[in-house]
Amino acid sequence: MIELGRNRYGKAQIHVVRVARDPGGHRVRDAIVAIALEGDFAAAHTDGDNTLVVATDTMKNTAFAFARDHLDGSIEAYGRALAEHFLEFEQVDRATVNVREHRWQPIAVGGRPARDAFVRGGAGTRIATVAATRSATTVEAGIEDLVAMKTTRSAFKGFPRDRYTTLAETDDRLMATKITAIWRYGSPDLDFDSTFEAVRRTLLEVFADHDSPSVQTSIWIMARAILEGHEALDEVRMVLPNLHHWLVDLAPFGMTNDGEVYISTTEPHGLIEATVRRSEGA
Amino acid sequence: MIELGRNRYGKAQIHVVRVARDPGGHRVRDAIVAIALEGDFAAAHTDGDNTLVVATDTMKNTAFAFARDHLDGSIEAYGRALAEHFLEFEQVDRATVNVREHRWQPIAVGGRPARDAFVRGGAGTRIATVAATRSATTVEAGIEDLVAMKTTRSAFKGFPRDRYTTLAETDDRLMATKITAIWRYGSPDLDFDSTFEAVRRTLLEVFADHDSPSVQTSIWIMARAILEGHEALDEVRMVLPNLHHWLVDLAPFGMTNDGEVYISTTEPHGLIEATVRRSEGA
Amino acid sequence: MIELGRNRYGKAQIHVVRVARDPGGHRVRDAIVAIALEGDFAAAHTDGDNTLVVATDTMKNTAFAFARDHLDGSIEAYGRALAEHFLEFEQVDRATVNVREHRWQPIAVGGRPARDAFVRGGAGTRIATVAATRSATTVEAGIEDLVAMKTTRSAFKGFPRDRYTTLAETDDRLMATKITAIWRYGSPDLDFDSTFEAVRRTLLEVFADHDSPSVQTSIWIMARAILEGHEALDEVRMVLPNLHHWLVDLAPFGMTNDGEVYISTTEPHGLIEATVRRSEGA
Amino acid sequence: MIELGRNRYGKAQIHVVRVARDPGGHRVRDAIVAIALEGDFAAAHTDGDNTLVVATDTMKNTAFAFARDHLDGSIEAYGRALAEHFLEFEQVDRATVNVREHRWQPIAVGGRPARDAFVRGGAGTRIATVAATRSATTVEAGIEDLVAMKTTRSAFKGFPRDRYTTLAETDDRLMATKITAIWRYGSPDLDFDSTFEAVRRTLLEVFADHDSPSVQTSIWIMARAILEGHEALDEVRMVLPNLHHWLVDLAPFGMTNDGEVYISTTEPHGLIEATVRRSEGA
Q1: Is the pLDDT confidence value at D282 over 90?
Q2: Residues 166-205 in B contacting A (C-alpha not used; CB under 8 Å)
Q3: Cβ(B223)–Cβ(B276) under 8 Å?
Q4: pLDDT, tens digit, 9 for 90 and up, residues D213-241
């Protein structure tokens, strides 16, 4: 016997731009939205019965319609409004809305922010994922593609050596990474914007300040500091590639290289992932 | 109290090329390998203790060393050899090896395959993931990025309409997708190459042959046919984006358009996922 | 004094799909089109005068409208029809249309091509660029992203050595590249499809057959063979990155490596470009 | 007769990171370098004679070696040192060095810049191209991938209408683009860093301040302002895609949309290019 297992469907890469046209200065919100539904969709698969299948085109329309009234605040609030809307369909058990936000900043003109002109930029992409069921709404938030580097205070030594080990131990290496950090909030009702900014600041400050004996320990130190500093968070998951920068051997050219010249590489790379959380007994 | 949750680490994007230099004709194997380990790595995080941390550089070296003796057969066999090797470290509970293979085909010269020259190509990328623990080795295999299209025999109608629904019902649309299909084998000892080819053929033939009332139903029909036709598989997971091709309205230019001219789009796209499996009672 | 120099404008990434629905079997043409115009557009720049500015949206519409009647044959013929159409605007001196084609092949079902289902694939992307002025129409065609490899019969030695040279000479290396080859036809009236196929075959056969003392010489040998074999072409321009595959040193692991295991890299890469042409005196 | 035409070769994607370890705070320079040589290389093509072929591997080594002594200042100075070095080979007539720079900024810790930790970011990528021959060294500089938006004060009307025109005229649209601006300096001896910053500031301020009747006019207005404001520049070339943001029709949902909600698209896009220069008679 063959049966349907877990399934979900939705619309991805809905790219919404929302402009708030305040006389004192416009604001731009730029969100790439993905919506996914789970629920009573077995007949859609096994019987070709679309009676309960909310069209993904409808999801797209809804994302644009909701942007008008719900996307002037946090992406978490917008995501929550969308997710809870889709629960109004009886056949939906879980609605998940993921939002990736590009930041647009007013151009400085004569030292003052322009009223109606912007550049896109900034380090890293803010993301949020809201998952709503009839019993709970959970909010995850975080940052992706935050490229960061420590030019010293990073080591890696004391690791085991086997037949295939050639890496030298080092007390002082350059560590570069592209941080993904996703955290889960304990409540769906928070000041998401200020919390995000505060967590991001902790993340970067601890990245800058700590001595790293390994990427693994760096994750622990950063994630623990985030949880200790921000009660609203229950859990932090981090994914840190190790984007190796190898010291170039300049000796053949009669030159020294005391931590000055590196070749930056992306392939292959280390990839370190861990979740750090409050203990359930806490 | 704050504690370490799930964690793993490894090396990704190890790009191995293995040439078998048979006098009658060379063969090229091209594998992008990712290795991840789980196990007794808590102290590496919380104490900066690298005593048990197999260096990811060592993983990379091992991938190249094992390519010499194990990468002339299937990528599943190579992945298994690597995964089981890393279990020899006592601190490792689970070793996961993912391999993505590029196909190189001999260039035809005067109608015969060249002995030592190749082009890379083909539709879709073959992948395999081997996960080994001390109690079991599981093998998943599949295909990614297989772009396919049905120019007719695809419909979507009978779906619910709400305030945000504008999509028209259709009896006949163009359906384009980029298929990801991953299946789990019941055994780690199989003729993986011939099984892959047979499953791929079933997948494509059923894609071509069936009438599609929705992408959801297409997944069910294809996955069920694969499981019915191939006993070695326990489960198939499919992810099908709906890469919308919209019929262009040529009426403003005084022209008809009876399913002839489409605009191909990638954003936004539908995204349909489901797992189909043998019932546990079966 | 400040003045306007060279300028042009147009629409890019127009993704047209054209389906020919013959009862015996559908055919799919998939073209990504870019259109650029040059001409009397100074006032558009310096005076904000749009009187002569054909909207790029109109160009897009025209590409779709022309697909209906002109995209069942070669992409060169389609590009030419479009380019010559835009010359009908008096203000246009030169219209350039670039087309990149994805190949869709019928899925084999029971050994026979499906009537209405296709996969996208193949090695390399066919391209064509048609530039029309009131005095001439020139057609360039070619192929991009054709990834190819010679596993032997490639050498590189006898090069000069200076203070910064560390590369060893080699009699036998693996050569991998991603071929771009663009050629110019002597006439805008040709059987473009069969000529393309014939030139592509020559390119690949010579790539496979020749002994390469350098990428530079490989370009010369391939381009000369193409010009000698195909009178319709006046000139061939080739761009060949050298995608280095370095033999992995397995000696630390107690293993030999006689041309068996390589690390495939993309960065940094060599980049060799040359044009080969019929002499003007010929 | 068949002959060799224009040719050049070199190394691309050389990714150099240079750390200056001042006690008061490290500085990071991150340069992706491409080097290309032209000259007496005909025999390398036609005769397989490598006697004069400086290995691209040697170019890569040289880029790293020169980074140590020349990459603590501007990328233009580094590029010039490299380009003029390669002219020391008699067979080289022209050496071209292109550098793309990623910006790394110190992380703020407690409001002060970290001494040894950085994030990569910022809007746009700074680039420089130095071309040296025995008679002259020319320096081009500029910025790429600077994504910018005007939320008002952009119009497009008065354009011609033909059979294929459907675009409505508009007095007020959202204009988004990804600016490429490349300028040529009159001298190879300048304070390149401060000039770059000043030109970038002019570019953005004028982008923000002007009323745009078309992308064409925007290029003219910005480029003219740059040339008027910065005597060191002889010429500016700009490439501006028009990344269309279409106002979403919310009327079917019973909602107005007064310039609030847009769908952001990348395909197809307008593409407008022009060079603006000082007149030769000036």
Answers
A1: no
A2: 166-167
A3: yes
A4: 999 999 999 999 999 999 999 999 999 99
ipTM value? 0.96
C178 is catalytic: no
Count Cβ atoms below 10 Å from residue C252 Cβ, excluding itself: 12
Query: D204 vs chain A: nearest CA distance in angstroms?
Result: 7
User: Closest partner residue to C261 among B64, B152, B265, by Cβ?
Assistant: B64
Residue whose entry in the numeric block shows the structure tokens 């730029």: A30
CB contacts of B166 in chain A (<8 Å) are 57-58, 61
Residue D244 annotated as catalytic: yes
User: E strands within B73-111?
Assistant: 92-102, 104-109
As a whole number of angstroms, the longest Cα–Cα distance in chain D is 76
- CATH code given to domain C1-135: 3.10.270.10
Cβ of A9 within 8 Å of Cβ of B41? The answer is: no
Compute the radius of gyration of chain A from its Cα atoms. 23
| Per-residue pLDDT at D280 exceeds 90 | no
What class is the C141-282 domain? Answer: alpha beta
- Asked if B10's CB is within 8 angstroms of A270's CB, the reply is yes
C209 part of contact set with chain B, CB < 8 Å: yes
Q: What is the C-alpha separation between A119 and A94, in angstroms, rounded?
A: 36
Note the CATH architecture for domain B144-277. Answer: Roll (3.10)
The residue from D60, D70, D85, D244 that is catalytic is: D244
For residue C235, the distance in angstroms to the closest alpha carbon of chain B comes to 24
Amino acid at D31: A
| Closest Cα in chain B, distance from residue C163 (Å) | 31
Q: Does pLDDT of D122 surpass 90?
A: no
The Cα A275–Cα B6 span in angstroms is 6
Which residue in A11, A70, A85, A150 is the catalytic one? A11
* Contact (Cβ atoms closer than 8 angstroms) between residue D70 and residue D78: yes
Q: Which two tokens stand for residue B25?
A: 């004709």
Beta carbons of B281 and A36 less than 8 Å apart: no
Pair B279, A3: CB distance under 8 Å: yes
- 3-class state of residue B37 by DSSP: strand
Residues 43-102 of C with CB under 8 A from B: 61, 64-65, 67-68
What are the tens digits of pLDDT across the range A51-103? 999 999 999 999 999 999 999 999 999 999 999 999 999 999 999 999 999 99
Pairwise CA distance, residues B49 & A214, whole Å: 9
DSSP label at B253? Answer: G
User: Residue D165 catalytic?
Assistant: no
Within 10 Å of residue C107's Cβ, how many Cβ atoms? 25
What tokens appear for C229 in the block? 């074999």
Give dist(CA D181, CA D260) in Å, integer.
30
Interatomic CA distance for residues C88 and C109, integer angstroms: 47
Tell me whether residues A44 and B217 touch, CB distance under 8 A: yes
- 3-state DSSP assignment of residue C187: coil
Q: At what angle do helices A56-70 and A75-86 cross, to 10 degrees?
A: 140
Q: Considering only CB atoms, which chain D residues are within 8 Å of C158?
A: 49-51
Chains that touch A (3 or more CB pairs under 8 A): B, C, D
The CATH architecture to which D146-282 belongs is Roll (3.10)
Among the options B26, B56, B133, B178, which is catalytic?
Answer: B56
Cα separation, A128 vs A143, in Å, equals: 8
Q: According to the 3-state scheme, what is the secondary structure of A90-124?
A: CCEEEEEEEEEEECEEEEEECCEEEEEEEEECCCC
Instruction: Tell me if chain C has a CB within 8 Å of the CB of D253.
Output: no
Fold of the domain built from segment(s) A9-133: Urate Oxidase (3.10.270)
**Which residue out of D57, D60, D119 would a mutagenesis test of the A interface target, given it has the greatest number of A Cβ atoms within 10 Å?**
D119
The domain limits of chain A are 9-133, 144-277
Q: Say whether A144-277 and A9-133 share the same fold.
A: yes
D188-199 pLDDT, tens digit each: 999 999 999 999
